[in-house]
Amino acid sequence: MKKTFLTLSLVACAAAAFAQNKYPGTPPEVSPMPMKPEMTEIWNPEVATVTPGKTPADAPSDAIVLFDGKNLDQWVSAKKPGGPAPWKIVNNDHMEVVPGSGDIKTVMKFGDCQLHIEFSAPDVVESAGQGRGNSGVFFQDRYELQILDSYQNRTYRNGQAASIYKDHAPLVNAMKGPLEWNTYDVIYTAPRFKANGLIDSPARITVLHNGVLVQNNTTINGLTLYIGLHHYPDAHGDDVIHLQDHGNKTQFRNIWLRKL
Ligand code: MG
Fold first, then answer.
1. Cα 133 → chain centroid
2. Pairing verdict, β 104-106 and 242-243
3. How many other C-beta atoms can be found within 10 angstroms of the C-beta atom of residue 173?
4. Is residue 188 predicted with pLDDT exceeding 50?
5. Ligand 1 center to residue 60 CA distance, Å?
């Protein structure tokens, strides 16, 4: 009887202590002194200032401009090592794939980044499915964010515009008509590898297509393959971004990148 009374007393004390906590489920206050607002304010180091572009499509002050319509200085041929990028500049405004000339790749190498890129389907709508306005942005030379003229053009869902090719379909199809310009705004996180070369954390990607969220912190399951299952066959560091020549006269303009 005595033991039961003691147990009940302890339970009552515990319940009373719990009831005193203003926010049930949160830790009890351990400090006898109340906290002050400045105790949770962090002042240093001061956050760096970046001047934004005139519109969200324009490069901010800390961006690397990869293409502004004037020249292809930031790009080289992927087919001929060291050779100039073989694509055509049109009206000092955009570049166009020269079918058969091969992919182009950046001179610089990148890892984590924010990328803005604008593209348009070829001026003349030809073919269908994967043959219509196909190109692609390959991050770190390996992982393809698909470019395709997916306006009223059915194909496999993980191969249409804004898919991570044969890996993840986009959340929605936000494609504009063939004569209009599209934008991709991308946040890309590179994969991390262990010392033994095995994957530690896979690449991740968030994509806005014409301002519409189409990839939401998506896990990239590995190297883009036309045939086969995705995997990470090699550990790698920063690498080039390349744009694909898939035999269509896809057009590009206003490409800039921020290293993250
Ligand atoms: Mg492609």
1. 21
2. antiparallel
3. 19
4. yes
5. 28
- Say what the pTM is: 0.86
Residue 224, token pair as written in the block: 């883009």
> How far does the centroid of ligand 1 lie from the alpha carbon of residue 165, in Å?
7
Distance from first CA to last CA of the chain, Å, rounded? 68
Three-state SS at 82: coil
CA–CA distance, 59 with 258 (Å, rounded to integer):
9
223 C-alpha to ligand 1 centroid (Å): 14
How far, in Å, is the centroid of ligand 1 from the Cα of 243?
9
Task: Using the mean position of ligand 1's atoms as its centre, give its distance from the Cα of residue 160 in Å.
Answer: 9
56: CA distance to ligand 1 center in Å?
A: 26
Q: State the Cα–Cα distance between residues 170 and 158, nearest whole angstrom.
A: 7
Q: Ligand 1 centre and the CA of 259: distance in Å?
A: 24
| DSSP labels, 194-229 | -TTSSEEE--EEEEEETTEEEEEEEEP-SS--SSS-
Task: Copy the structure tokens of residue 40.
Answer: 């949770």
87 CA to middle of ligand 1, Å? Answer: 16
Distance 120 CA to ligand 1 centre (A): 14
**Residue from 136, 147, 140, 260 nearest 202 by CA:** 140
> What CATH code is assigned to 64-259?
2.60.120.560
Query: What percentage of the chain reaches a pLDDT higher than 90?
Result: 82
Domain ranges in the chain are 2-40, 64-259
Task: Tell me the per-residue pLDDT of 100-140, one tens digit each, with 9 for 90 and over.
Answer: 999 999 999 999 999 999 999 988 888 889 988 999 999 99
The rounded Å distance from CA 63 to ligand 1 centre is 26
* CA dihedral of residues 134, 213, 118, 110 (deg, nearest 10): -90
